[in-house]
């Protein structure tokens, strides 16, 4: 699907990978360029390191492997990193190897059509991918489908009701054919509820971090 491409799998991707792995630098860039805060996104990743041995963690879209920062080398989990872009999967594999993370496997797939059985994941993390597609509600339905009962969903997304600067940037992107982000936090909450998720928490302006659980 044309609108499902990972926009970081371009010449911009190398620069993005450089600064996103440096939270202090990302905070500066995010405030200056987008007018947003990203500290909660990094903090939310700690849930990965708390998963018990034998758990299954799904990371989609995994991008260049940002969430691997929270995975412990000795952690005996199944970590499934999924992205539609082969270049991003290659970056994830390289990062996993550099950190001696042997539990990581990579899968090329669209986040709206996950090649995973129903109720097979204990945790699904989805960072900064929903705003890259035109029908993120379908991706959320897939996330809920693969979560086990009491499984957790944690993720982040841009939303369209942020600062004036953010709105202008997204308007420029839309003119280039890029997807339009979800309208606001309430829209994401509705999609989460429609997918059967509960215990929903969401916070942020312009860029939100959300948490939910499959009932």
Give a structural overview:
α6 (136-146) packs across α8. It is built from eight helices and seven strands. Strands 3-2-1-4-5-7-6 form a seven-stranded mixed sheet, with helices on both faces. The chain is of the alpha/beta class and 215 residues long.
Rg over alpha carbons? 16 Å
Tell me the number of strands.
7
User: What spatial form do the alpha-carbon principal axes imply?
Assistant: globular
Sequence of secondary-structure elements: HHHHEEHEEHEHHEE
> Reading side by side through the largest sheet, how are the strands ordered?
3-2-1-4-5-7-6
Q: What is the helix content?
A: 25-40%
The gist of it:
The chain is of the alpha/beta class and 215 residues long. Helices cover 36% and strands 23% of the residues. The model has no long low-confidence stretch (mean pLDDT 91).
How would the blueprint of this fold be written?
Layout: H1 11-20, H2 23-34, H3 39-44, H4 46-49, E1 56-59, E2 78-83, H5 86-98, E3 104-108, E4 121-127, H6 136-146, E5 147-158, H7 164-175, H8 185-194, E6 197-203, E7 207-214
Parallel strand pairs: 1-2, 1-4, 2-3, 4-5
Antiparallel strand pairs: 5-7, 6-7
Keywords:
215 residues; alpha/beta; seven-stranded mixed sheet; 8 helices; globular
